[in-house]
Amino acid sequence: MDKGMKRVSFSLFPGQGESYKSLVHPSMQSRILRYYILNEYQLPKDLEIINQGEKKDLETQPFRFDEYTDRRLNLLVKEVRDTGHKANRSSLMRHIMAQLIDKLKKKGSAKDRELKHSSFYFEKGTREVLERFVSFRDRNAVIERFILEEFQPRDHILFEKPEEAESMRVSMSAEAFDKLDENVEKFKKEGLNVSRTALMRDAVEQLIGKLSKTDARKLVVETKLQHALREYAETFGPNELKERLGEYGKEE
After folding, report:
1. CA-based, 20 to 30 A from 15: which of 127, 148, 169, 187?
2. Can you give the pTM of this predicted structure?
3. Strand, helix or coil at 50?
4. Domain span at residue 179?
5. DSSP structure class, residue 78
6. pLDDT in tens, 25-79
């Protein structure tokens, strides 16, 4: 089991777990559920729904959660209880699962799909920043779902290239790569030469912004600065670093 992950179990309605598994590839089941809870699920307006349904013959289903998803689930349960309604982790998960299954059925099965792999170049520090908000194990799935469901290219930054590039390998469904390529063709018809890599950089930058609620570029610059300061201190010593930073302060 991945570091930071723990096994959690929920009592679901009969057949609910099997229905979900029939729609999602085994390697993606926990990942998609985590992403949905963290980024998409919203409590219903009528909170009484959370505790409705026949409680007989419930079936226990295990999943793997990270601390962020686990905390989010607990906060949602607390939010329901604070309004005076009954709720626990399993009752809430039954509602979450019902909503997610309905969404997957409307979209189509994610079980049988062709995976593609490609390496993309980003501004150095992007990968580290992304992994503050998305675990390495979930990274590909989160990028894929963002591209398929939310990504809208921003024309004004597509022609910017990394000043200091780093490579990141991304594995996604053929459908997600096709969406990037459709945008490449769209820009080509407009007389613009936009690469798949430029679109991926834009998508990941937007994704970081959404997850962090902060300007992604500022986070990347801060990360690069932290590494530069650490390297300077290791090379010249912390006292020299303090002195140099003081000089910079005086220059301003």
Report:
1. 148
2. 0.60
3. helix
4. 115-223
5. H
6. 887 888 889 988 988 899 999 999 998 887 888 999 999 998 889 999 999 999 9
